[in-house]
What we know:
Rossmann fold
Amino acid sequence: MLSIICFDIAHLPLHIGQGGNAAFGCIGTAFNDVFKKKKAAEYRSTDFGITTEFAKYAQQVGVDFFSFISGQGANAKSKFNMFRVKGEAEEFIHLMKFKQAAFLRPGSLNRGADATWTEQILTLGGLTGLPVSRLAEAMVWMALNQVESMKPYEHKEIKQAALNFKNLSVI
């Protein structure tokens, strides 16, 4: 089902997204698949292709704020595929000229029960790493408070934005 959704983003009716002012791209490849050469095309299709198609759709429907989960070390000129693909996605979205864009570059993410064995090792069984719920809170806070036209957020800034979210008072 995911592949159908991924490739149909370009064909989504515009009325579905109209009226929204923020879009959040949260797609990503499981960490232990990122480094497999045989999965390089699939990784690019997911982390660059879906992200940029979603950004194009968001722009078509008039979204002002676009945010997506990039990656720590993102750099379009990197010799490492993982960092290069994320950096290329950042550059693509930067050129789209959203009123505001946020590139989140977290370190290890803690997906709890959904974590792969590699992610479990990297987060010491969930004791470390940024919980994905905190990442979501940070994205919402950024949409409500970011003043820069384009801003990359590193791990520490993402954690602070999540804390700031907790202090929001809803009227």
